[in-house]
Specification:
alpha+beta, Immunoglobulin-like, Oligo-1,6-glucosidase, domain 2, seven-stranded mixed β-sheet, hydrolase, Glycosidase
Length: 727
C-alpha cells in the first residue's frame, strides 16, 4: 500500500486547533464550522479526492446516519463547511481519502488517545467503518477501565448547544465540599433524641451508635430479589447544628459551596429513600435549623447545595406508605390516594407489585410525567412546589440524584422551575459518563446542551486523574482527555463541572492510591480486609499521590470538590465504608484504624490559593505533556495579566519540563507568545504539593517564550509567571 505509507505522516487534522477547525469548541445552535484536512504539498498528488463524513443521530431510525460531503482543495489541503442540523445534539465527523491508486482510507481520532490530532487508517487492517463511525481493531470491548480515559469515539465530535446557555458566575471555579450529614459532626447538643423517637413512632428501626468513632455497620443480607445489600439504619447522630459549628473550618479550606447529601426525612442514614420532601429529617434538626445553617454559611461566604432525589421515594414515605402508618392514605392504600398516580403498579418480572428503582422494593419509582407529581415538585395549581420551597429558604441549588432516570423534558421543567425561583441557583446532575455523549434507555441525552443541567459530576476526570497517579494513564493521554473535555463541553458547563476524587458512591481516594488499584470488584468483606491491611508505607505513598492529584485538580478549570474526610486521610472502600464519621481531633484519630496521614493543613493552603487566584478560578487553559509522565497546565487571564503554570510529575524521579508557549496552538497573551528577552526571568512557586519536605523550592524560568521548569518526583508545583516578565 504505497499510497497509505506515503500519506500516513502527510495528513493531519486537530479539532482542538484553530488551524483545522473554526470556530473552536462547542458550536452554538445555528452556526456552521469550517473544517480543514491538511495534506502536505509533496503528498497531494497521491490524493484523488477527500470527503467529509458527518454523522448525526436520527431519532426515528435510532442510530447515527452518515453523509458524505466532497471537500474543496485549499492552500492547506482540503476544506469544507459543515452545517449541523438545526437542533441540539452531538454530531460527528471523519474523513474519507481516496488515493490515486484507488485505495479508500479514513482519517479518524487516534485509538490510543495520546493526541487530539487523528490518524490515517486502513479499513480491514486497522479496524472497520460501522454505523457508529470508525471502530478500531484495538477497541477495548468493555475491558475494565476503572482508572483510565474513555475509548476513542467513532469520529471527531461537534457539540451543538443553546447559545442562550449561561451558568452562575458565583459557582464557576469555586471550591466545593461534600458532607454526608449523619457522619460529619454532632452539634453541641449531641444526638437529637426527639428525632430517634420520631422515627421509632413510625416503626422505623434506629441503631444509634454510642460513640461517634464507631465503625459503620455493613453485614450483608439478602433482599427478596437476591441482591446482596445491608440495611443502612445505623446512625451516628450528625446534625445540621453540627455542620453549622464547623463552618469556620470549612471556610479555612477555601470552601464556597457546601453540597449536602440528602437532609429530608427518610428511613435510612443516607436518606436517598425520601419519606417527606417538606421536612428536615428530625435526626438532623428542623426547618429552622436549616435556615440558621444557611444564614451562618452565608456569613462565611458559603452557599448550600441540596441533594434532590426525584426519580423514586422510599416505600415507607408518606406518599407510598407501604406500612399504612400515616394519617393520609398513601399510594399503597389504593387509587383513593392522591399520590396513587405517582406510581406504576404493574408487577415486575421479579414479582414486586410495582415499578421500583433497579429492583429495590424499598425504592418505588415515580412517574415524572404525572401532572400531580409535577405540581407537587415544581409548583402549580396552588402549590409552591418542593424545589422552590427550599430555594426560598436559602438553598442555592440542587444536585439531582440519578439524573439518568429523569426524562429530558422533565429535566427541562426542573431547570425552568429552579431558574424562575432563583436565576443564580445551580442545577447539577449525577451523571457518571461524558454528559455530552451519554446515552440511556436507547437515546442520546440532552444534559449538556443548555436547557436542562448547568453541570454534572465529572467522574470521567476522576478516572483519568487517578489513572495518571497510578501509571495506567500517561501524560499524553491525560492532556488529550482534558483538551477534549474543554473542546466538547459548552464553555458555560465546562467551567462548572464538579471535579471530584471521592464521593459517597466510590472508594476513598487515599485507599485507591495506597493500594494502587480499584476496589469496586471486591465484596464488602474484601474491601474491608484490603483497607484494614494498608501499611504505614502504603499510606505515605498514597498521601503523596493524593497531594499530587489534588493540586492538579485545583489547577484545572471547573469546581474542585473535596469529599469530607479526605483531608483527614480517611481510608475506605465503597458504600458504606466511604461514609464513615469525620474524625475531629487527635483523640478521635488515635482510637481509629481508618485514619491515615492527615492532610488538613495541605488542603487549607491549597484551597486558599485556589480561592484567592482569579486565574485558577476562571482563567483560560492550555495543556502540554513534555514527557510521558509530566503534565503541564497553563492558566492565564487577559484581564489582569496573571499567568500560572502547573507542572505535575507522576514519576518517582525528577524530570525537566520544557514548554514552548508558542507551540501550544492556543491564543496566548502577547506577553507570553512573543518575547524578545535574552535573559531568563524567574517564575516563583505559588504552590508546591511537597513544600514541607523540600530543603529548597523547585525553580522555573521563562526566556524567549519557553518555560524551563523543574518537575520534582511525585509532585505538582504551580509556578507564577510574572506579569510583563516576557516583555
Amino acid at each position: 500500500m504505497a499510497g497509505f505509507e506515503q500519506l500516513k505522516w502527510s495528513v493531519a487534522h486537530d479539532p482542538c486547533s484553530a488551524r483545522f477547525r473554526l470556530p473552536q469548541g462547542a458550536l452554538p445552535l445555528g452556526a456552521s464550522v469550517r473544517i480543514v484536512l491538511r495534506v502536505d504539498e509533496n503528498a497531494r498528488q497521491a490524493v484523488r479526492k477527500a470527503s467529509l463524513l458527518t454523522g448525526e443521530y436520527d431519532g426515528r431510525a435510532q442510530r447515527l446516519v452518515w453523509c458524505e460531503q466532497s471537500m474543496d482543495a485549499c492552500g492547506e489541503g482540503y476544506s469544507a463547511v459543515f452545517e449541523p442540523t438545526p437542533n441540539l445534539h452531538v454530531a460527528y465527523y471523519a474523513f474519507a481519502i481516496y488515493t490515486a491508486d484507488d485505495l479508500l482510507l479514513y482519517y479518524v481520532p487516534r485509538a490510543d488517545g495520546r493526541a487530539t490530532f487523528g490518524e490515517l487508517v486502513r479499513p480491514g487492517t486497522d479496524g472497520e467503518w460501522t454505523e457508529d463511525g470508525w471502530r478500531p481493531a484495538s477497541v477495548s470491548d468493555g475491558a475494565d477501565a476503572s482508572f483510565g480515559v474513555p475509548d476513542a469515539l467513532g469520529g471527531f465530535q461537534v457539540t451543538v448547544f443553546d447559545p442562550a446557555f449561561t451558568t452562575p458566575d458565583w459557582f464557576a471555579g469555586s471550591v466545593m465540599y461534600q458532607a454526608f450529614p449523619d457522619r460529619f459532626a454532632r452539634g453541641r447538643g449531641g444526638v437529637r433524641e426527639e428525632g430517634v423517637h420520631s422515627h421509632e413512632a413510625l416503626g422505623r428501626p434506629v441503631h444509634l451508635h454510642a460513640s461517634w468513632d464507631d465503625p459503620v455497620e455493613w453485614d450483608d443480607v439478602e433482599n427478596p430479589d437476591g441482591i446482596a445489600a445491608y440495611d443502612p439504619v445505623d446512625f451516628h447522630g450528625g446534625t445540621l447544628e453540627g455542620i453549622a459549628e464547623k463552618l469556620s473550618y470549612l471556610a479555612s479550606l477555601g470552601v464556597e459551596t457546601l453540597y449536602l447529601n440528602p437532609v429530608f426525612e427518610a428511613r435510612s442514614n443516607h436518606r436517598y429513600d425520601t419519606a417527606d420532601y417538606l421536612a428536615i429529617d428530625p435526626l438532623l434538626g428542623t426547618a429552622e435549623d436549616f435556615e440558621r445553617l444557611v444564614d451562618a454559611a452565608r456569613e462565611q461566604g458559603i452557599s448550600i447545595m441540596l441533594d434532590a432525589v426525584l426519580s423514586h421515594t422510599g416505600n415507607d414515605s408518606r406518599y407510598f406508605d407501604a406500612a399504612d402508618v400515616y394519617d393520609e392514605p398513601g399510594a399503597a392504600q389504593g387509587p383513593s390516594s392522591r399520590f396513587y398516580s405517582w406510581y406504576d403498579f404493574t408487577p415486575t418480572e421479579s414479582g414486586v407489585p410495582y415499578r421500583c428503582w433497579w429492583g429495590h422494593p424499598t425504592l418505588p419509582e415515580v412517574n415524572e410525567h404525572d401532572p400531580s407529581w409535577q405540581s407537587f415538585m415544581l409548583g402549580g395549581h396552588g402549590q409552591q412546589g418542593v424545589l422552590p420551597h427550599w430555594l426560598t429558604r436559602g438553598a442555592r441549588g440542587y444536585r439531582l440524584d440519578v439524573a439518568d432516570e429523569l426524562p429530558d423534558d422533565v429535566l427541562e421543567l426542573i431547570r425552568t422551575c429552579v431558574k424562575r425561583t432563583d436565576p443564580e441557583a445551580v442545577v447539577l446532575g449525577e451523571v457518571w459518563e461524558d454528559a455530552t455523549t451519554k446515552t440511556s434507555y436507547g437515546s442520546p441525552r440532552t444534559y449538556a446542551f443548555g436547557r436542562s443541567l448547568d453541570c454534572v459530576m465529572n467522574y470521567p476526570m476522576r478516572n483519568a486523574l487517578l489513572g495518571f497517579a497510578l501509571g495506567s494513564v500517561d501524560a499524553l493521554q491525560l492532556a488529550t482527555f482534558l483538551k477534549l473535555q474543554q473542546a466538547n463541553y459548552p464553555a458555560a458547563m465546562h467551567r462548572c463541572l464538579m471535579n471530584l476524587l471521592s464521593s459517597h458512591d466510590v472508594e476513598r481516594v487515599r485507599s485507591v492510591l495506597a493500594l494502587g488499584r480499584s476496589l469496586k470488584d471486591e465484596d464488602r468483606a474484601g474491601q474491608l480486609r484490603l483497607t484494614n491491611a494498608i501499611t504505614p508505607d502504603q499510606d505515605r505513598k498514597g498521601a503523596r499521590l493524593q497531594r499530587l492529584v489534588a493540586a492538579l485538580l485545583y489547577a484545572i478549570p471547573g469546581v474542585p470538590c473535596l469529599y469530607y474526610g479526605d483531608e483527614s486521610g480517611l481510608q475506605g472502600g465503597g458504600d458504606p465504608f466511604c461514609r464513615q464519621t469525620m474524625p475531629w481531633g487527635d483523640a478521635s484519630r488515635a482510637g481509629r484504624s481508618d485514619c491515615g496521614e492527615d492532610l488538613t493543613r495541605f488542603y487549607q493552603d491549597l484551597g486558599q490559593v485556589r480561592k484567592g487566584s482569579p486565574v485558577l478560578r476562571a482563567g483560560q487553559t492550555a495543556y502540554a505533556a513534555p514527557a510521558s509522565d509530566v503534565l503541564c497546565v497553563l492558566r492565564w487571564d487577559d484581564r489582569n495579566g496573571e499567568t500560572v503554570l502547573a507542572v505535575a510529575n507522576q514519576d518517582e524521579a525528577d524530570r525537566p519540563a520544557v514548554v514552548d508557549l508558542a507551540k501550544l496552538d492556543v491564543p496566548l497573551p502577547c506577553a507570553l507568545s512573543k518575547t524578545v528577552m535574552t535573559e531568563a526571568v524567574a517564575c516563583p512557586v505559588l504552590f508546591d504539593s511537597e513544600a514541607k519536605a523540600r530543603p529548597c523550592a523547585p525553580t522555573a524560568n521563562l526566556c524567549d517564550g519557553i518555560v524551563h521548569a523543574q518537575a520534582p518526583a511525585l509532585s505538582t508545583v504551580i509556578f507564577r509567571i510574572p506579569a510583563g516578565g516576557a516583555q
